[in-house]
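User: I've been going back and forth on whether these two constructs are worth ordering. Before I decide, could you fold them both?

Assistant: Sure. I'll take them in the order you sent them. The first construct and its structure tokens:
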Amino acid sequence: MEYGDTYPYNQQTDHVVTMAVPSENAAQNCTPAVVHVKASVPPTGYAHSLQQPPQSVPPVEGWFARNRAIMPQMTSAGAAMLVLVSGGMNIAWSCGVTGVRSFRLERHIFICWYIAAIIGALVSAFITNRVSKRLIYLFSSFLVLIGGIFFVALAHEYGAIAVGRYLNGFAVGLMFVPMIVLIGEEVISSRRGMAAAILEAGSVTLGIYLQIVFTAAYAHKTTSFDNSFGPTQLHGIVVIVNAVLAFVMSYFLVVESPVQHLMENNELEAINCLRRLQRPFVVTQETYQRLEEHKRYIQANDPNGDKGIPALVKLCLIRGLVALSFSSVITSAVRFATLRYTIKTVTWPSYTIKIDTWPWILFGLFLWLGTYIAAFALDLVGRKIVPLISALLCGILAIAIGAICKDLINNFSQSKVGSVLFMLFVLGLFASFFSSSSSAYLTEAFPLHMKPFYIALSFTVQMFVLLIIGVCKKDQNTFGAYFITFGVFYLVFFIIGFFCLPETKQDSLQEAQRKFRNFLIR
């Protein structure tokens, strides 16, 4: 191939270039010798010209500058994070934070979202590596949009709300798997923990917080068919806005995984994706370093998924514990403690009881901020120490809450109930730490070929635990048993985690996966 020739877009990057150089006896006959040089030509997404050598880019200095340089990785993987925000709103709805007064709420409408989310995740496990992830994001955003329209247009219809929640749950489950895959394969190792915590756990807790705020805002207002606008319609409007923004962001910002392109033997497109996932958008030496890292990751993976069983067991356990940290029992306990602790006035003859809503707002705020605090610690302190410390503190707090709630006489003591309420605030904070660390582990623990299936199974376990809790009876008589069980599970995990949880801070996917291959760390 001569230097000026073009080559097909999907051609490999090794090229034989014919060069004319003077021979040893050039002075006698001036005949050039023909030398065939096998050179690695760094290509780009342009198919009509050979790529120039890697460009020299000054090193990025400063925390903000480094995060700005990897912002395309965050926006690509998290383009549909607003779908998860709507999912968090529906999880809070499933846990009783509804504000609905137009119809009788039955058990089915509370658990239907979990059922749909499980179905969506299982479907996604089979299509994540077969369908464009941008297409999955777009379709999920569209389903969320339709579900939001049901909430706004038919807010007083039981069936319409159920359909809207089914659509939202299926959409969240459908996009959860490819989102976790993209975070793991696109975000650099030194920022993977932060990205996972913010994009996954942070989005869900933000949605929970928003739903709490909306419900609290209408706590002392009445809605009827004549005055139809209430928390249900507000929920639908916010979901619609999230869906539209997620659709636009997914269309323009999603970059397909370079690992997927390498598995399809399309190295040119993999390099082009890596170029688009960094700033400035040029091919640099770092681009080729990441390309080689991805190649080693693919070569090190065995198509047999047996080596990922220990990681699957650990992550299923962790995600099951995450489900315990925010469930319908937790919200019932917050509601009960708020009712007992914040009763303001009782007037006669109308007999009006006024209850403050600030405990709800504060609980949701602690839940949300905890994910962001943990997000910045995961890549600095480490993956292991954050969940272990948070599990220890959550276990102690939960057992203390359970011990108070177990004695029903304490329910009539405002000081005892107040202590329970404030411990619930702190419990929400540290539970968010634990949830964030599980998000980071989820992006890096599983072998390549089985990754979508194992992520879907871990998500399914979490939803199944929430579903079981949702169908159980919840009142002050069950709080003690629930919180003591909660605390025991977390303390047991604290002990087991010392021997089973690996430290994967700033590890490549290949290194992290190797550390998860055994039940006990070495």
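The second construct, handled the same way:
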Amino acid sequence: MSGRVSSMFSKMGGFTSIRLCIIASVFFLLLSLYEHCHF
């Protein structure tokens, strides 16, 4: 199981930075929307 997960991570090693950027932008967008609707 752990070997399979590590192989999957090594396969998607090139997409980690792009995925992190997308997650960060989506999180920031949701946070700004929440603050805009909250206040």
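Notes on the second construct follow. The chain has one domain: 2-38. The CA atoms of residues 12 and 19 lie 10 Å apart.
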